[in-house]
Amino acid sequence: MPRVALATYDPRPEPSKDRDLPVLRQALRDAGAEADAVPWDDPDADWGSYDLVLIRSTWDYSWRAAEFTAWAERCAKATRLANPAEVVRWNTDKRYVGQLADAGVPTVPTRYLAPGDPVDLPREHEYVVKPTSGAGARYAARYTPGQHGTAVAQVRRMHAEGLTAMVQPYMRGIDTGGERALQFFGGSLLHASRKRAVLAPGTAFDADKVAHPGLERWQPTEAELEVAERALAAVPDGAEVLYARVDLVDGQDGKPRVMELELVEPNLFLFLHPESLPRVVAAVLDAASGHA
Fold first, then answer.
1. Most-buried pick from 89, 204, 214, 284 (CB within 10 A)?
2. 225/183 Cα distance (integer angstroms)
3. Is residue 49 within 8 Å of 71, Cβ to Cβ?
4. Three-state DSSP class for 49?
5. Cα–Cα dist 81/287, whole Å
6. Distance linking the first and last C-alpha atoms of the chain
7. Rg (CA), the chain
8. Is the peptide bond before 13 cis (omega within 30 degrees of 0)?
9. Model confidence over 79-89: pLDDT tens digits?
10. pLDDT digits (tens, 9 = 90+) for 212-237
11. In whole angstroms, what is the distance from residue 51 CA to residue 258 CA?
């Protein structure tokens, strides 16, 4: 009987936002596994007693990125971790977008402003500012050139907190075509979804946002699938990636570009794609048995 830990977060006093976690845990148990949901920062957790630790909804990690990656490395020494610790470390820093671009993957154009860099922001087009360590649109905001002072203040606030800012042109294609999320599991496409724009004009960077507005099922195009596969092929040490989500938007030319590549704790959206649950369970059990 394989033992699987589903690494999550402890949101108390609020209820967990992971709708898929209890469903996946029960499905694994129904398939004959021992499956536990365990907060990643639980000091009493015995990770080495599990055959596989599957990172699922560790959705508070971006506030504690260094602590989280150190945990992933310790965990990987004790047992099998999915995704692997080296992939987790690479993916927790969104400077990977620039590395994907250098590898020839179509991406959203991105500049990085580290603490100490001049705060040089666009004055001729709409743009987005967000941190290189973030999730759920944390510290992300959309600006017009007329909001230059507010945007500069955001970047300086981020720098004061030790955060590196990334600056991207606002991709207007998201207003019509949305953002498409292609989910992979066990080495192949699992399903795809589409959501509407997260960042509304005038929303403060430190305000709460709806992470997945207007979420719906999506049938990816051949062009979207090709770009997603190119992105995954460019991941360093990516041969043992068990799961991935590639978020795409249309560029000015109407062709898909990678906005983000989620290899740490992407929402699987199984509540939207219940037919995918058996495939996920089979892939997890294979990984726990050392077959994947």
1. 284
2. 10
3. no
4. helix
5. 9
6. 17
7. 19
8. yes
9. 999 999 999 99
10. 778 999 999 999 999 999 999 999 98
11. 33
